[in-house]
Specification:
Elements: E1 10-14, E2 39-50, E3 56-67, H1 85-100, E4 107-108, H2 110-126, H3 131-136, E5 147-152, H4 164-181, H5 187-193, E6 199-207, E7 210-218
Parallel strand pairs: 4-6
Antiparallel strand pairs: 1-5, 2-3, 5-7, 6-7
Helix pairs in contact: 1-4
Length: 219
């Protein structure tokens, strides 16, 4: 998007459920944002058909659905954060939003972050949302069976404060709030609140004083 209003600073999100998934397997099952728990539900439909003799034939169709519990968190612990404090700030803010919904915190992943950083660098060059993810996510180091991506404004988020650290924090806060304000059904929100995702990678890149932000998720 090129509209320069805060309500339009989102690049769009690339989600596994849309068919862009690491390994080529779309996400399915429980709705994003709710922890998946095993169980069984039965859906019943009744079909009424009028017969030639005037009678009504009633047919009941029952469908049983089984949900599969989400996998446990990976055994490998989170990777150490890099020296850039804004990366940790980004992860902490996402996890603070997840905590409000009762979701487990995402673990920082250095390999996914390296991928996300390259995505932000490419976004700063071509301003095409998710071009790097679409071309390179499948089989990329760090990703598991599913992956998704959130990116900020393809034109970059302008400076918001004269202090470099406060500026970065405010830029991140603006983007994450816009993503959360989409609510359920909004791609950015659903990626951040997806209980199936266990890991996050953060790519922050400055060019021309603007922040290009990429958050990548995986199980």
């Amino acid at each position: 998007m090129r509209v320069r209003t805060l309500s339009a600073l989102l690049a769009g999100s690339l989600v596994a459920s849309a068919g862009v998934a690491c390994g080529g397997s779309p996400a399915s099952g429980a709705s994003p944002g709710a922890p998946s728990s095993g169980g069984e539900s039965v859906e019943e439909r009744v079909i009424l058909e009028k017969q030639p003799d005037g009678s009504v034939k009633k047919t009941t169709i029952r469908t049983t659905r089984r949900t599969v519990p989400a996998p446990p968190p990976p055994a490998r612990p989170a990777d150490p954060f890099p020296s850039d404090p804004l990366v940790k700030y980004n992860v902490d803010r996402v996890n603070a939003y997840r905590a409000r919904k009762g979701l487990a915190p995402l673990l920082y992943d250095a390999k996914i972050s390296a991928f996300a950083r390259r995505g932000s660098e490419q976004l700063a060059r071509d301003h095409v949302a998710h071009a790097h993810f679409a071309a390179n996510a499948e089989g990329a180091p760090g990703f598991g069976s599913r992956a998704a991506e959130n990116q900020g404004d393809p034109s970059g988020v302008p400076a918001l404060d004269g202090d470099p650290r406060r500026n970065g924090q405010r830029q991140i806060d603006v983007m994450l709030k816009l993503m959360m304000d989409e609510g359920p059904g909004g791609g950015h929100y659903d990626n951040m609140m997806n209980a199936r995702f266990r890991r996050i990678g953060v790519g922050l890149f400055y060019a021309g004083g603007k922040l290009y932000m990429t958050n990548d998720f995986s199980d």
